Amino acid sequence: MTKTLELSFVQQLQTNQNIIHKICRLYTSGEDAHKDLFQEITIQLWKAFPKFRGDSKFSTWAYRVALNTAITLYRKNKRSVATIAYESRQHFTQDIDYNYEEEEQLKLMYQAVYQLNDIEKALVFMYLEDKDYHEISETLGISGVNARVKMNRIKGKLKKILNPLGI
User: Fold this and answer.
1) Which of 98, 113, 142 is the last residue of a domain?
2) What is the CA radius of gyration of the chain?
3) How far apart are CA 121 and CA 119, in angstroms?
4) What parts of the sequence cross the membrane (predicted)?
C-alpha cells in the first residue's frame, strides 16, 4: 500500500473513530471486549480500504464494514479472531480514552437497545446518529420504506422495554 493511501486511511479513521466506538458500545459489554472489537473493525477497514471507491461517504462505508464485523463476530460468539501483524507499520491512530462515565446517562437506553436483535441495533444506532433513511437503507442493504417501517416497530419495542407497565 502506498504511503498516500495509508495517510488517507489514518486521517479518515481519526475523523470517524467515534462511529466505531459507538458501534463497539452497542455490541459489547465491557471494556476489553470493546477494545477487541474496535481493533478488529479497524483491521477490517484497513484490509478493505484499497477497494473503497468513494461512491459513498467514508463514514457510510465505515458504518457498513463496522456493523458487518460486529454482527459477524458476535453472532458466532467468537472472541478470538485471526489478525494480521502490523509490527512493521506505525500505529494508525492514537488511542483516545473512551470515557464510560460520560455515557452513564445513556445506560438505560443502551440496556434496552442491547435487547434488540442485531439489525434492529444497527438501525437504532444510525437513527440516533441522525442518518437519513436513504443512508440507513444504503448501509443496511434494505429499502428506505423497509427502514422506516422497521424503525417504527423498534420504537414501539423500546417503549415497552423502557416502560413495561405503560405508565
Assistant:
1) 98
2) 17
3) 5
4) none
CATH code of the domain in which 22 resides: 1.10.1740.10
Mean pLDDT value of segment 26-33? 86
Q: What is the pLDDT of residues 65-101, one digit of tens each?
A: 998 898 888 776 544 444 554 444 455 555 556 555 5
Taking only the tens place, the pLDDT of each residue in 51-70 is 888 888 888 899 889 988 98
Q: How many domains does the chain have?
A: 2
Q: Is the separation of the CB atoms in 67 and 139 below 8 Å?
A: yes
Q: What is the pTM of this model?
A: 0.58
CA 125/CA 119 separation, integer angstroms: 10
pLDDT of 86 reads 47
Last residue of a domain, one of 59, 80, 98: 98
Residue 120 · residue 146 · CB < 8 Å: no
Nearest C-alpha neighbor of 37 from the set 52, 22, 49, 48? 22
Q: Nearest CA to 99 among 33, 25, 12, 26?
A: 25
Query: Are 47 and 86 part of one and the same domain?
Result: yes
The identity of residue 30, as a single letter, is G
> Does 86 share its domain with 10?
yes
